[in-house]
Amino acid sequence: MRIFLTGATGFIGSRIVPELLEAGHQVLGMTRSDEGAQKLQAAGAEVHRGDLEDLDSMRKGATGVDAVIHCAFDHDFSNFVANTEKDRRVITAMADALVGSDRALVITSGVGIGAKTPGQPATEDYFDKDHPNPRKASEEAGHAALDRGVNVSVVRLPQVHDTEKQGLITPLIAMARKAGLIGYVGEGQNRYAAAAVLDVAKLYRLVVERAERGSVWNAVAEEGVPVRDIAEVLGAGLKIPVKSLSEEETRQVFGWMSAFAAMDISASSAYTQKTLNWKPTGPGLLEDLRKMDYFNI
């Protein structure tokens, strides 16, 4: 297949490119910059110059290809709500180019949206339309595209990691360094699901190849890593104190990040692993955190 990939030079997308190429697919990778174009060409991909703000460029990218994988996202979490609405517009624009065909559109969301009850792992078969996480806008756009006949499937992400980046934990590290401490709410027993980035890249390939209309997949290797365990590893790496914080203290120290501090974002991938024969083999989140070079990132 010839596959249009947004976010092709990003953290996850840059791993999806070789995964697709090695499986015999062609990749049309989106980038905004000359540097990104050079990286894509060096990897063996075609280049599409585009931008999330330029909806025409998104429509053009999704035209004339066999499938689309959309993993680009503006990760300025301090402006999270606006960026989720931008993602809604982008998904809608690409769906415009796919209406009337069976070409797959694989979009990206977050695992927490699949939690039926607080404290229980999120699953693939549920969508919480009332979830407080604004990222649900991406799945709402996917549902609207499905109603228009577009072949949409969803990959829900946990904290995707290697030794340089770890989802929400990456901005937390910067905030903790500035604050001089790392904290967790209460006893810190709330959990974050996680998966190594190379395992996630493989899952995107499996999902686009399956092209199952309306399907949802959880890119989860570890169902839930306790936040206190994460904080203790970060404290050791940064050489700063680790302490329990009240919710008010968390807001004062970590600002917008405090909205995620007490969330239990655990998730199961039992269905995904069984159905797609996806077997994560990468390192665990704490293992990658222990191997980080905290003072050169």
Order of helices and strands: EHEHEHEHEHEEHEEHEEHEHHHH
Question: How far from one another are the termini?
Answer: 37 Å
What's the tally of helices? 12
Query: Major β-sheet, in short?
Result: 7 strands, parallel
Low-confidence stretches: none
The rough form would be described as: globular
> In which order are the strands of the major sheet placed?
3-2-1-4-5-6-10
Helix fraction by DSSP (H/I, runs of at least 4):
40-55%
Oligomeric state, counting identical vs distinct chains: single chain
Which class of secondary structure composition applies to the elements? alpha/beta
Which percent range describes the beta-strand content? Answer: 15-25%
Mean pLDDT: 95
What does this structure look like?
40% of the residues lie in helices and 20% in strands. It is of the alpha/beta class. The model has no long low-confidence stretch (mean pLDDT 95). Helix 1 crosses helix 7, helix 3 (55-61) packs across helix 4 (80-98) and helix 4 packs parallel to helix 5 (136-147). The chain contains 12 helices and 12 strands. The strands form 3 sheets. A 7-stranded parallel β-sheet has the order 3-2-1-4-5-6-10, sandwiched between helices. Strands 7-9-11 form a 3-stranded mixed β-sheet. A two-stranded parallel ribbon has the order 8-12.
